[in-house]
Design a protein that fits this description.
- The protein has seven helices and seven strands.
- It is α/β, with parallel strands linked by helices.
- The protein has a single domain, classed as Rossmann fold.
- The chain has a seven-stranded parallel β-sheet, with helices on both faces.
- α1 packs parallel to α2.
- The chain starts with 10 loop residues before the first strand and ends in a 12-residue tail after the last helix.
Length: 197
Amino acid sequence: MPEGTTSPIRSIAVFCASSHRCPPALFDAARTMGEAIGQRGLQLVYGGTNVGLMKELADAAHAAGARVVGVIPRFMQEKGIAGLSCHELLLAEDMRQRKSRMEELADAFVVLPGGIGTLEEFFEILTLKQLGLHNKPIVLLNTAGYWQPMLAMLRAMIDMGVAKESLTDLYAIAESAEEVFALLEGYHAPTIPSKWA
């Protein structure tokens, strides 16, 4: 996609924690994000479970009018933790297929606080964007400064020459759901360098 062009955002994939031990501020952020997606008449694509921030996000999105699509690996579905707010629940054979399906269904990615699974999802879509395999917006929701240590690590990678400065053009950082949507609405796809190595 040439720089300066945008495509309509109708479906948002949200990555976030499945833990029920998160502090209240993170649950509040997940709920607000879900509500914001529903209020805008968008589709939510998420990891398909009924636990942690995922549940809060999906329940709020459903209640606010979003179409909710969950993508869950079969082994998780067999554990009885599939989301109850899904209009459509897609079964994946494994974690890799789950990520691939979520990437296909999304026009944009929003990353809420999460654990190593959320980190893996973020870094995969970031890497794919760096390689020019998609040019969709990626926004980190930095609730309670959650992503500051990771952002410092990315800065250190650039400063030490193992990553390019252009890495920071591939994602945006928001402090609230409203800012997430302001960034998405103003998104201009960056030109991906042809020489990325």
